[in-house]
């Protein structure tokens, strides 16, 4: 009996199919953008006489290698950090300098939001997740106070309008009007977030 020869597979169009699949996946795949922390570095200037800060105007946040928070020399849970920062920023220890502050007016805490500085120091072994979480809580404290004031003065939230401008949802003719108001709110609660050089583990 004669042996049958196996039929050949026509592979001529395989390259075309592979090319079409490649184009399909390139077009349909969504690439996630990396999200980071928006920070503007200070200008490179030689400061001859650095400003002298009162100890009560500095809110110190330390994060150790075990991701534990030490806020103003006391252990604190991450969930309580935002409110503690709000209380510090909104204190208004000198009432004449901050008529819009609604804090306790504690003479041992910050004088006014313009003088209040939050200083964060991490350990070199602090996890990146904890680092981001702390930054988020502190920025959220500023946003809470800015939203409160923009709602009181203009009837809208600072963060919502800023996001709409960033996403291009507000027309150019309206942006100029909003920009001035956003700057006014930022002056009421300026973001003064200082990061000290990370500590070596165990120090």
UniProtKB/TrEMBL annotation:
UniProt keyword annotation of Cell cycle present: no
Give start-end ranges for the coiled-coil region(s). none
Q: InterPro entries of this UniProt entry?
A: ExbD (IPR003400)
Membrane topology, record value: Single-pass membrane protein; Single-pass type II membrane protein
Q: What is its main location?
A: membrane
Location in the cell? Cell membrane
**Keywords noted in UniProt:** Cell membrane, Membrane, Protein transport, Transmembrane, Transmembrane helix, Transport
The UniProt entry, under PANTHER family, shows:
BIOPOLYMER TRANSPORT PROTEIN EXBD-RELATED (PTHR30558:SF3), EXBD MEMBRANE COMPONENT OF PMF-DRIVEN MACROMOLECULE IMPORT SYSTEM (PTHR30558)
The entry sums up its family as follows: Belongs to the ExbD/TolR family.
This chain belongs to which protein, by name? Answer: ExbD/TolR family protein
């Amino acid at each position: 009996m004669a042996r049958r020869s196996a039929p050949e597979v026509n592979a001529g169009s395989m390259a075309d199919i592979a090319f079409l699949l490649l184009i399909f996946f390139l077009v349909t795949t969504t690439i996630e953008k990396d999200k980071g922390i928006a920070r503007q570095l200070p200008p490179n200037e030689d400061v001859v006489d650095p400003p002298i800060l009162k100890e009560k105007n500095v809110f110190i946040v330390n994060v150790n290698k075990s991701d534990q928070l030490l806020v103003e020399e006391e252990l604190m849970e991450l969930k309580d950090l935002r409110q503690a920062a709000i209380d510090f920023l909104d204190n208004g220890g000198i009432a004449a300098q901050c008529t819009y502050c609604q804090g306790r007016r504690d003479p041992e805490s910050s004088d006014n939001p313009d003088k209040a500085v939050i200083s964060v120091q991490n350990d070199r072994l602090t996890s990146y997740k904890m680092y981001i979480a702390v930054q988020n809580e502190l920025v959220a404290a500023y946003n809470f106070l800015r939203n409160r004031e923009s709602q009181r003065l203009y009837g809208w939230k600072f963060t919502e309008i800023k996001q709409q401008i960033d996403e291009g949802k507000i027309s150019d003719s309206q942006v100029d009007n909003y920009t001035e108001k956003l700057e006014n709110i930022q002056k009421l609660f300026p973001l003064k977030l200082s990061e000290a050089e990370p500590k070596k583990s165990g120090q």
